[in-house]
Amino acid sequence: MANLFKYFLTTGLAFTMLMGGAAAGQTASTQLPVYEQLEYQVSWNGLPAGTLQQTLKRQPNGTYLLTVTANTNRAVNIFYRLDSDQTSLFRLTGDRLQVLRYTHQNKGSEPFPREVRFDWEQMQAHMKNEKDGSKDVAITRDTYDPNTLIQQIRFFPASVKDPFMVVDGKSNKRLQIKDLGVNRIHTSAGEFAVRCVEQVDVQQDNPDKKRVASICYSQDERHLPVELRFHSKYGDFVARLKSIQTQTST
Q: Which residue positions does the secretion signal occupy (predicted)?
C-alpha cells in the first residue's frame, strides 16, 4: 500500500480538449503565474489522511521552480506514509514546459532520494536513485516529470493529444488520456465547474491496472487542478483544493 499513493502524487494526466481554447504551437491557454501556492486536503476512503502543498515560482533567469510537499496525519501513518518533498525545474519553450531537473525524497528514516536530469541536446534523461543506481533513458519532446506534466496539461492542453512519457527517477512510463467529462466540485477554496480526465498506462495489459488516476481542472481562466484522485483496491485517495495564493505579474 505504501507505494500506491506516492504513485498517485507523482503521476500526471492529459487531455487534448481539456481547456477547449488552446491550439498546439500557440500561446498558453492561461498565463503562467509569477507565484502560486495551492494547498490540498488529502483523504483516504473519506477519512482525513494528510495535506499536499504545491508551489510554483518563476526564477530570476526565467525558469520555473515547482515544489510539492506531502504530509500524513498521525493516525494514517500506521498504514501509510505519504510524506515527501519533490522539486521540478522547467523552462518555457514554445508550447512545452521543458523539464531540466526533477527530485523526489521521502521524509523519515527511509528517504529513498531519486533524481532525473534532462539533457535535451542528447535527448536523454539521466535517472539516479539509491536502489538502482544510475540509468539513462531515451526521451522525446513529449517527456515530463510527474508534476510538470500536470502544469503542461493545464497551460497547453492541445500539446498532449498523443501518448507521452513520464520519467520520475524510478521508472519511465508511456501514458495517454481519457476524457471523463464535466462536473462540479465543492472545496474549501470554493465551488468549481471542472473537466476531468483519466490516466491510462498504454504499456499495461492488465485492465485492472490501466485505469490509474484522474484529475479535474477548473473551467475558469485559471484552469486550476482542483482535485486529484487515485483509484486502487484499497479505496480512493483524493487530494482536493483547500486554498489558493497567486501572483500573475511582478
A: 1-24
pLDDT tens digits, 55-91: 999 999 999 999 999 998 876 666 666 788 999 999 9
| Cα three-residue angle 39-41-43, rounded to 5 degrees | 155
Q: Is 100 left (phi over 0), alpha (psi -120 to 50) or beta?
A: alpha
Distance CA 63, CA 70 (A): 23
Helix residue ranges, H only, the chain: 2-9, 146-155, 207-210
Amino acid at 5: F
Total residue length of the chain: 250
**Residue 12 pLDDT greater than 90, yes or no:** no
pLDDT tens for each residue of 151-195: 998 999 888 888 999 999 988 889 998 889 999 999 999 999 999
Model pTM?
A: 0.85
Give the count of beta carbons closer than 10 Å to the beta carbon of residue 99: 25
Where do the domains of the chain lie?
Answer: 2-247
Nearest to 17 by CA among 191, 171, 157: 157
Query: Three cell numbers at 55?
Result: 508551489
* Phi and psi at residue 29, to the nearest 5°: -70, -20
